[in-house]
Structure formats: C-alpha cells, structure tokens
Amino acid sequence: MTTRILLVEDDDALGAQVEGILRGDGFEVMWLRDGDRASKVDVTDFALIVLDLMLPGTYGLDLLKRWRAAEHEVPVLILSARQDTNDKVRALKLGADDYVTKPFFPDELLARINARLRRPDLRRGEGPLRLGRLEIDVEGREVRVDGAPAPELTKVELDILVTLAKRPGSALSRRALVDACLDPDKAGSERTLDVHVSRVRKKLGPAGGQLQTVWGIGYKLVADAPSEDG
After folding, report:
1. Is the confidence at residue 124, as pLDDT, over 60?
2. Neighbouring residues of 211: CB distance < 8 A, sequence distance ≥ 6
3. Is residue 75 part of a domain?
4. Which pLDDT value is given to residue 80?
5. What total of structural domains would you count in the chain?
6. What does the alpha-carbon distance between residue 128 and residue 144 come to, in Å, rounded to a whole number?
7. Is the peptide bond prior to 128 cis by the omega test (within 30 degrees of 0)?
C-alpha cells in the first residue's frame, strides 16, 4: 500500500518541487496551498505531514496546535524559510517532529521523512507498546524491562511514559506533558513533572536512559539508551 503524505505549501514552484521529490520516492501526495483547506482535512488518513508556516488562511503553527490538541499523532515535519532558533523551538514545543529550513537539499528532506516513518508507531489498543528494552502494557498497567517486570509505576508516572511512547523519538515540551499527565487540581507544575520523570527513570533501571532530556524543550523516549559503561 502506498504511503500517503499531506503537503501544505502555498509557494507553487516549491510545492511542485517537493511533490515531485516525494512522488519520485514512491509516496502518494495530497498538496494543499492554504491553511484553511488543510484545517478541514482528516489528517489521520496520512502517514506524515510536510507543513509550511507562512500560509494564507490558517497559520501553520495554528494548524499544528489544533492537530495536537485533538490528539492526532501523525508526524509533522515543518518546512519553512524561518530560520530563527526561537521559531524552531516553538514548533517543537507545539508537537512538530522535525524542522527543515528552506532552501533545502532534496536528499536531506527525503532522509528525514524516511527516518521518521521508520520509527515505530505506538498506539493504544494495539497490544503492548514496545520500544528498545521497554514493553508497556497500558491496559494491564505494567511495564517490563528486558522481559522482567519493573517496579510498579504510579498513574502519573505511567501516563508520562505512555504519552512519550506514543511519539517515539520526538520531543514533547514539559508544558505539554504537564497538561496531559498531571492533575491541574493538584497544582501540577513543570518542576513536579521533573520529579516524576526522575522517579520513572529510576524505576526503569537499565532502560532509564531511554527517557532523555531535550534541553530547552522537555523530554523524549528513544529506543537506544547509553550503555551503563558510558
């Protein structure tokens, strides 16, 4: 089955170039030229989205916020002429999976897209989530490391782990994790989140290194952890 990619880009020449690159690599592409049209599309029909920021109609980051607020986990690669570090950090904090600046090398764009598509897609309701040394049974509320049960995680700790596991390798902001996993009635804060993450790492033992800090953004869960030897 052909992999479908949604391209949202208003520049005709650049959009045609990207569409040609993707189709040449075997992808099926839907190309939309404005944010309002993109806001009406069911993004769950696509394996990945290539998204410009400066769009007519709905702004690119506003689209990203809507998709993440609706818990759509489709990977989003930002393709933008904006090269300021603050723009990149903001996009990643809002849930973007990658950020490529224009102009770009076609081979690099394809490499980043294919790398993201190769990452395991971990979802609820489809059996245990597996990533590296970890196996997470969401319904049974059990975590295994190298096949052996890990110390029991609290509800908040497990929610943090599952939220990160649903988007393996992608950085989630501390604020997003606070909103998704901590109880607002109990004054959940980013500092409280850091304490929970520290406890999760300890309980995961040799797999604790898979839960990594992304400085200036938040945390991510990866398949490979540094060895205990360093």
Report:
1. no
2. 161, 164, 197, 200, 201, 204, 219, 220, 221
3. yes
4. 92
5. 2
6. 10
7. no
Residue 173's domain comprises 129-221
Instruction: Name, in order, each residue with C-beta under 8 angstroms of 100's C-beta and a sequence gap of 6 or more.
Output: 77, 78, 79, 80, 108, 109, 112
Q: What is the tens place of the pLDDT at every residue in 37-77? A: 999 999 989 999 999 999 999 999 999 988 987 767 788 99
Q: Which one-letter amino acid corresponds to residue 224? A: D
DSSP state, residue 186 = G
Boundary of a domain, candidates 57, 89, 118: 118
124: its two tokens: 């609820």
The neighbour count for residue 223, using CB atoms within 10 Å, is 14
Nearest-angstrom CA–CA distance, 208 and 230: 13
Could you tell me if residue 42 is inside a domain? yes
pLDDT at res. 230: 42
Q: Are residues 101 and 194 in the same domain?
A: no
